[in-house]
Every structure is written in structure tokens, then in C-alpha cells.
Specification:
By secondary structure, the protein is mostly helical. The chain has helices spanning about 5-30, 35-40, 45-50, 55-80, 85-105, 105-120, 130-145, 155-175, 185-195.
Length: about 200
Amino acid sequence: MGVKERRAREKEQLRHRILSAARELFVAEGYESVSMRKIADMIDYSPTTIYLYYKDKADLLDSVCKETLLNLLNTLDRLRKDKSDPVETLRMSGRAYVEFGLKYPQDYKLTFVVRPQFQKGLGLEEGSVGEKVFNYLRTMVSECIRQKKFRQVDVETTGQVLWSAVHGVTLLLIDFPDFPWTEKDKLIDTVIHTMIEGLKP
């Protein structure tokens, strides 16, 4: 490996360390309580070094959330490869979404609860990873309509309704683990089943 390649790898490793430290501190102490100096101290670098990679704390939070959304998108994209039954793919996607949130609860909350409090919107700007995640949902709904698995419905509204349902059950399961929920898998599957059945012709 040449000098140029080694330096590029070291820079990427440092970027990852900064991001990991920021994520850990945002979760442990709250976004507002974390300073760039505190992040720098955690990885034994100066704040000046962090500013070479991220312009400010908001940029760090945005990067953490983008990484989370990219991981979610990759998870969903693996399910979309089989287009023979879009309804089943949509069902599996809903289940995968909830399972992702429950597997990475802190990342999920940073992205969908904390970030909107400090930055405008949900990161759904044109061309963003967030928009690609929502476009996935739009595409699946459109395919169900095209194959006449769903009745003619407004794609945008239906996509938002579907997301509202899976997001809601995800957040409730994260925030209220001690609530006397019915069996978890049964709850998740029933929410998704109820949504899908209500869209069929």
C-alpha cells in the first residue's frame, strides 16, 4: 500500500472514530450537552482536528443520522430484489423497518426524534438518503397498485400512513418496554397486516 492510500485510509478511520464518539456522547449525555471539545477529548484529539472533518456539531449529528438511514436503506433494498409479490415484500419491509429500529434504538431515536428538534425537517431533501428511504416506500406502494394488489389510492398519502404506523409501533416499543404489550411479534405483524389488508381491492 502506497503512502497516499495509507493516508486516505487513516483519514477515513479517524472520521469513523469521530462519528462513533459523537454518537455515543449524543446518546449518553444528550445532544445539547455535548461539545466539540468533549468529543475531541474522548478520542484524544484536539477540537481543531475534528473541524477538519466536520464543520460543527450539527454537521456531526446530520452525519450520524445519514449513516443510520443508509444502513436502513441497505436493509430494505435487499428485500426489494424479489418483485414477484410486492405485497409480501412490503410486509417484510415493514417488519424489517421495525426490527431495525429495535436493534438500533439509540440511532433510531437520534435520527427520528432528536435530529428534528435541532434541524429543520427529517432530512428528506431531494437527493438525500432520507428521500431515498421514503422513495422505497413510494415505489413499493406504486408496484402494489400496478399489479392490482391494492386498489387505486394516493401513493403519497398511503406511503405516509404506512410509515406513520410502523414508526409509531417502533417508537412505542422502544420508549415503553415495560408496558404490558401483547406478544411483540404478534403486535408488529398485526399492525402491518391491518394496514395492508385495508388497501386491498
